[in-house]
Write a structure and sequence with these properties.
2 copies of one chain form a homodimer. Chain A is of the alpha/beta class. Chain A is about 45% helix and about 15% strand. Bound molecules: nicotinamide-adenine-dinucleotide (NAD) (2 copies). The first copy, chain A, binds a DNA duplex (30 and 30 nucleotides) through helix 3.
Amino acid sequence: MSDYISSNTMKRLPFYLEYLLKIRDEGIVNVSSKAIAVALNLGEVQVRKDLASISKNGRPKIGYEINSLIGDLQKFLGYKDLTDAVIFGAGKLGTALLDYNGFEECGLNVLMAFDSNPKKAGKSDSGKPIYTLDELPMIAKSMNISIAIIAVPAQHAQEVCDIIVENGIKAILNFAPVHLDAPKDVIIKNENLAYSLALLSIELKAKK
Amino acid sequence: MSDYISSNTMKRLPFYLEYLLKIRDEGIVNVSSKAIAVALNLGEVQVRKDLASISKNGRPKIGYEINSLIGDLQKFLGYKDLTDAVIFGAGKLGTALLDYNGFEECGLNVLMAFDSNPKKAGKSDSGKPIYTLDELPMIAKSMNISIAIIAVPAQHAQEVCDIIVENGIKAILNFAPVHLDAPKDVIIKNENLAYSLALLSIELKAKK
DNA sequence: TGTGTTTCGATAAAATAATATCGATAACTA
DNA sequence: TAGTTATCGATATTATTTTATCGAAACACA
Ligand SMILES: NC(=O)c1ccc[n+]([C@@H]2O[C@H](COP(=O)([O-])OP(=O)(O)OC[C@H]3O[C@@H](n4cnc5c(N)ncnc54)[C@H](O)[C@@H]3O)[C@@H](O)[C@H]2O)c1
Ligand SMILES: NC(=O)c1ccc[n+]([C@@H]2O[C@H](COP(=O)([O-])OP(=O)(O)OC[C@H]3O[C@@H](n4cnc5c(N)ncnc54)[C@H](O)[C@@H]3O)[C@@H](O)[C@H]2O)c1
């Protein structure tokens, strides 16, 4: 168990967890780094290194005990204690995210959405509340929102970002295809689906 | 203009493009690597290196000529010649993607969706066609689909992946939170939104 | 109990990526 | 026109990440 974990390693951890959960369902109790490496298309040394950074229970000849490895992964990934998140922009993408029930198992509690358009206010299909933007200050004060998800049109993303920062939220996942400026104690991650697709297309062309 | 471009560099290129388009609108004609670096929070040497890999027109004291740099970026990123993509799963996420009009400007042409549920067949809000899954072979044969986007429930993702591969599509963007197995000449990229959020939450906790 | 096999973790080496340094060049200024 | 400055690109350095190597631990089985 080392102290620092690289972001590349972090990105692989969820895949280990997913795979381990799958094979545990199949009744497997122990697994070797080699088996994991083959299944996920990674190097086995890399697998051992990654796992060593969050767990410490590999045994020669035996491999890893799946249950405790899963436990360590879930603990590290914070899939136990929920983090509260809210969405800005209750449009197509925003409501898809709001009504998606797969976040809980990753430790995320998507609570509500905010939209500038009062007509959007009310409840989503799955029954989660949608508020108007001016209700944010009050709500933010009374509860501890950790993460904001931006799903508003690009031209409004920066202004929404500013409002988010003003209300004390320190982490933002931004789906709008623009670079956002914010104080550097605010963590911003850009999730640009169009770029992901474009990069895939580039790789495809490069291969031929 | 070098030959090989690292994936880290590739991920940064769209941000350069976005920024350059923005400042071009403001009437700026030349820009220095330093200005770009400051705006996007990168190292200025890194910016020069990245840009050198796709363009070659920086001039001492002047910087880069924005127009030609934009041209080179767009050309490299393939934002001119459109690549055709289709979506599997016309649920909440799938239709949000289908009706999103921001892909075109990144060179992606999202044509249609396929869903196993016949009730979904017809047209989306924006008028794009939704077909049943069994219509895929015929359609795939008559046109050149480059990219498949998987937006079906996790438990069906692998079976849909198999169908996609059978129909000759060589690149997949997978939104289902499962690892997919496919022949290694098929490029698979996982876009797991829940993990992105979870990682943000981990970083946030680590900072405090 | 001893030998062989598997698999781990630690350490070393190689590959990749980021950052720093510096001479060269082009524009500006006096 | 000569000196000054901003900025580039090339090269060198440093840091990070991946991959290889190898001794030791743990079990199987004779
Ligand atoms: N739909 C997709 O698949 C997709 C894919 C990639 C990126 N995006 C990006 O996600 C964002 C949302 O896309 P969408 O398709 O859901 O758009 P949308 O038009 O369906 O929804 C946008 C919502 O934001 C609300 N809004 C506008 N200004 C606001 C403000 N200042 N504060 C709060 N809410 C505001 C609107 O009322 C609307 O409900 C866009 O930036 C888009 O570029 C979407
Ligand atoms: N909604 C989100 O914000 C979100 C976020 C992250 C990941 N995801 C993932 O994206 C996928 C879709 O999510 P969603 O919220 O749109 O779900 P959804 O239930 O709204 O839609 C799923 C659609 O897939 C169709 N489908 C089922 N089996 C199919 C098959 N074999 N072939 C073709 N179509 C099939 C269904 O008929 C349905 O229309 C899921 O894997 C989910 O985990 C969704």
